[in-house]
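Listing S7. Sequence submitted for prediction.
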Amino acid sequence: MPLLTLDSLPCIALESDMRLRVRVSPNSRRPGIEELPDGTLKVRVSEPPQEGKANQAVIETLARHFHVPKSSIRILRGATGRDKLVEVIEF
């Protein structure tokens, strides 16, 4: 799997923030991040989509990937669906 860098991601940069389109795959056997052909990030997490567990795992995975604190990641849209708009604050 190719390494994702900020230069390769289609994102919206807003001063020190950026917004990413994310598609979540919960209950995955192989957690990780990959870029889809349309530029969306596919985030695979092993947690189920119950009681916010998958969303929390997405936040933790993205924070680890971008080397920012978890408090810098916010789900702006799609908290109850697979497709999300995520903001990375103070990037």
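Caption to Listing S7: primary sequence and predicted structure tokens for the chain studied. The first strand starts at residue 12 and ends at 14. Residues 6-88 form a domain with the Conserved Hypothetical Protein Mth637; Chain: A; fold (CATH 3.30.1200.10).
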